[in-house]
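Justification of resources, computational component.

The compute hours requested in this renewal are based largely on the per-chain cost of generating structure records like the one below. Each record pairs the submitted sequence with a full structure-token output. That output is archived, and it is also reused by downstream analysis tasks.
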Amino acid sequence: MSRASCGGDHRCPRDVGPPSDRGEPRHRHYRALGQSSRTREPLYRIEWFFRDMDVEALFGNGIEAGHFNDDRLARALDKFADADPWRIYHEIALGSPDACSLVLDVIRLDTTSFSVQGSYDPADFEDAPFRITRGYSKDLRPDLKQFLFGLGSYGGLPLFADVMSGNQSDKTWYGPWTERITELLSPEVWNTLIVVADSAFVTEENLNTYEKRWFISRMPETYRLCEALKDRAFADESRWIEVGSVAQEGKEAASYRIQGFEDELYGRTYRFVVVESSALDQRKAKRLEKLVAEEAQAIEKAVAQQERLSYHCEADAKVALEDWRRRHNRWGFHHVTGQVVQERTVKRRVGRPRKTDPDQGNVEVVRWRVTFTVEPDTEAIEQRRRRDSTFVLISNVPRTRRADDAELLRDYKGQIEVENLFRALKQPYFVHGIFVKTPKRVLALAYVFLLGLLVYAVTATI
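The structure output for this chain reads:
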């Protein structure tokens, strides 16, 4: 386990957005207990970590550095796991002075995977509260087993947290999380709280759970309604509303245009916001480039096959061209035009020519071919790029709370808060590895990491 310290090249969890009004950068550097931010210490060396410190000043009278050894810490993890670490975490997070002074408005939810080394025998997890197993890896390490972190951020503070099995689906996490958090928050708080989540939130079951709770989410691209709303938006260019940049400032900041709609999903009426971004996601841009290139290769192959053929008369060539057009009318990113051309070649007759033959045995052969001109359809490519850079938000927040659709977009783009928390949590100098074996201790250690993240986030706001 690494020390929780901030290195010089690190972005703190709340280090997002423009500088303050005084022009001061929002990023600050902190070092844990005066130690180097680059140093890592395994758990069994924790005694050496505290050896040169005033341990009594940190932890109380009678506490010595020798009291911190791996055996004691392992037993402490066992006790922590048995004491319901989920509830302990939230009592600390929601009971902190920073949290008590907050008026909860928007909670941003997201999950991430945390890959671990080791076999972790499934038999060890039969009675465990969660499982370390393979699942969808957001770390792009499907070869490793994992568990999941879930966070709920308010203003960059991880007020809500969860540790889940490695194969837990985001779609089935939001509902149980909501029911558990209901035990911690009063009805008055829930009545004013807006939950912001990604597209995995949008399922019939989750929408039923949030029938009387407010949320903002992103429509999955797999829904037909999502494509239908995009069609309606692009059909009327005059309805677009310029919003400008939302979460960033600077020349490279994306700007947005929106159109608001109301429609039904699963028998209920929701607010929908079609959002067009000036910046295309890098993955989608590469996918579009690949589609255009693949279509160009397919056209080149089809054209080459046809251009090798020749015909004895112009009528046959025109029939062949029309037949080719019927069979190849699916091109979406290129203009392909065909024309029939005449070719004249001179061939020599077989045998010796007669002396009286004015052509000396040469004869002119007239043939007809189909040739093509291929050009990129820049307008179609641009339309596809615009469509790929467009997404749809769904919300049941009433207009009495968020009158402007642009406010829904700003709330959703604030998801960068929880993403930055995950980025901080996964930094090697914060958590470098998990070297405990039992599932109980892994669970407890995961909540220790989360508590460290909470302290780290609070410190970054000072």
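Residues 1-38 have pLDDT under 50 and may be disordered. The longest helix spans residues 282-307.
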